Amino acid sequence: MALGIGIVFASRVGAQTTVIPSVSLSERYDSNVYRTTRSKVPPGRQPWDYVTTAKVSVDVVNKSRLADSHLRAGVNGNAFVYNSDSAFVSTNVLASSDMTRGVSELVRGLRLRISDSFRYTPEVPSFMTVDHPSDPADIYASGGGGSRANTYRNILLAKSDYSLSRSFSLTTNYLNTMFKRGHSNPASDSVDAVAYFNNTQHAVDIGPTYMFEGGDTLFFKYNYSTGESKPEGGGGSTGYTFQTIAPEYVTKAVPGWTLTISAGPTLVKQVGDRVFLSGKLGLATDYDRRTHVEMGVSRQAIPSYYERPSALISNLARFTVRYDVARLVRLTAGAYYAYNETVPVKTYATRTVRGDVALQYSLTQSTTLSLSQEYNYFERTGVLPYDRIVTMLTLKTEWE
How many angstroms separate the Cα of 219 from the Cα of each of 248, 249, 289, 317? Predict the structure, then answer.
């Protein structure tokens, strides 16, 4: 069980800049800090532990005549009661800017949004460790898991639209990702340690977008991705290329509902050429005044960052619900599932499951008390599966 206290306050710098520093302290119970089966926990070590986490971060929001920008920087330290040499520090920086007002003065009809996210952590990349939903899409947070590793991840995302008419525009998105394995720390490495690979990828989405009278949009999307993986410590690199044609249709035909549909072939070029079906289906709705529901499934080709330098076919499913039980009480719950396998040859596969539920009570306008429970399950080919339970009680106060 964990007890956390957070304090946030805001100040004005100039007319359009807001600075929001924050500090939090938490205590949680983790049933499996080694993230492995009980039989592989080192002799004399305790698999469960209480973890103290101290976080310091600052948000800077700037609104100017030319752009709306946001900068978030944070660092957190984690100390373990029984496994003291497993302590670690993580850092993250997110910078984003909507530059539409500025670029439209140069090129009428052009919209541009840019963001960059950097993170250092020994936590395993997966949807279990994403802190901020507003971060750029992290292709390494696709359900994977397993051993801890000191990793550096940087994700640069640029989105642009050029309007040719009221209903027709040209859309271009660029994504650059970097995954790098840092120096080894024996206290941070899992007993199920695996080989990691430094990975870089460049990806471009391009195509025309048509907007219908009712507000629906159709994006005739072509994606081209290329990258390479290099073994940790040097050695020959392995290259790969993905090419996808998957039109994306977003509709709000039913009031209060948003439906996203995308499907098409993906050509994976690595050793041998193979074609796979990719796409996504998403649904979001305010079911009623008190209930918000989101669900979705997706299938895409992504690079592997450990075990073998190979492409992965990633299959994800998620369901989340938010329900306002009363004016001061909110219930949130989520279920997530991922199955990833290497291609063109299936040398290994991973399966990740997560379920969480949280009950939040507003003590005052700025203070909330919440109780949450989280369950994780992970398995990888050739390795015994394991599960993990985290229980947390959080008290948070904000001043803005």
Answer: 5, 6, 31, 22
Q: Give the integer Cα–Cα distance in Å for 242 and 171.
A: 19
Tokens 């840019």 -> residue: 114
* Domains of the chain listed by start with CATH number: 3-398 (2.40.170)
Please check the confidence at residue 355 and state whether its pLDDT lies above 90.
Answer: yes
Beta strands 248-251; 217-219: pairing state: antiparallel
HSE value, Cβ hemisphere, 13 Å, CA-based, for 323: 9
What six digits make up the tokens of 233? 């410590």
Q: Using 50, 70 and 90 to split pLDDT, how confident is the model at 131?
A: very low
Q: Which two tokens stand for residue 363?
A: 């003590």
pLDDT at 377: 92
Distance of CA 40 to the CA centre of its chain: 29
First to last CA, the chain: 29
Which residues, other chains included, contact 359 with Cβ-Cβ below 8 Å and sequence gap of 6+? 329, 330, 331, 370, 371, 372
Strands 383-398, 3-8: pairing kind: parallel
pTM for the complete prediction?
Answer: 0.84
pLDDT in tens, 281-340: 999 998 888 999 999 999 998 888 777 777 889 999 999 999 999 999 999 999 999 999
CB 111 within 8 Å of CB 97? no
